[in-house]
Amino acid sequence: MNNIPWSKLLSFTPSDLVKVLLTAVIILFVNKIQLFSDKLSALLIALPLTSLLAMIWMWHGGQPSGKIAGHAEGTFWFVLPTLPMFLILPWMLRSGWSFWSALGANCVLTTGFFWITVILLRKFGIDLMPK
Predict the structure, then answer these.
(1) pLDDT at 131
(2) Distance CA 101, CA 98 (A)
(3) Residues in the chain with pLDDT < 70?
(4) What does pTM read for this prediction?
(5) Residue 97: how many CA atoms within 13 Å on its side-chain side?
(6) Whole-angstrom Cα distance, residue 131 to residue 2?
(7) Alpha-carbon dihedral of residues 79, 16, 26, 73, nearest 10 degrees?
(8) Is the separation of the CB atoms in 71 and 55 below 8 Å?
(9) Which single residue of 24, 56, 78, 109 has CA 20 to 30 Å from 49?
C-alpha cells in the first residue's frame, strides 16, 4: 500500500470526467436494455466492455504495451473465480434466498474462490498478488 501514488490517484482531469461519463453511459444503457431483454443485457454485460475501456484509457494515457498486456492477462485470471457466482446466485434466488442475503453470500464465496485461484496459480508460477 505504500507504493500507491495517492496524489495521482486522487487527482482528476477533464479527461477523467469524460472517461467517467462515457463509462457510466454504457452501464446505464445496458441496464436500460435489461428492462425489455434480460438476455441481450446479459450478452452486453458478458462482453468485456469495462476491460476494453480500461485498456483504451490506458493506451490513451500513454501506458506501455507491456502494462496493457499485463492488465489483459490479469483480467483473464481474475474473471475465473467470479464465474461460479453467475450460477450460484440464480440458484439461491430461485431457492428462496432474499436478494441481499444471496448477494452477500456470493461476495463471500467469490472472495474465497479468488484467494484459492491466487494460491493455485502461484504453484504454477503465476503471481496475481505480488508481495
Answers:
(1) 65
(2) 5
(3) 1-2, 131
(4) 0.69
(5) 16
(6) 12
(7) -20
(8) yes
(9) 109
Q: In angstroms, how far is CA 17 from the centroid of its own chain?
A: 20
Give me the torsion for CA of 31, 23, 26, 74, rounded to 10°. -80
Per-residue model confidence as pLDDT tens digits over 88-103: 999 999 999 999 999 9
- Gap between the Cα atoms of 19 and 109, Å rounded: 31
Q: State how far the Cα of 73 lies from the Cα of 34, in Å rounded to an integer.
A: 29
Residue written as cell 442475503? 101
All three cell numbers of 126:
503465476
What gap in Å lies between CA 32 and CA 30, rounded to an integer?
Answer: 5
Residue bearing cell 498478488: 129
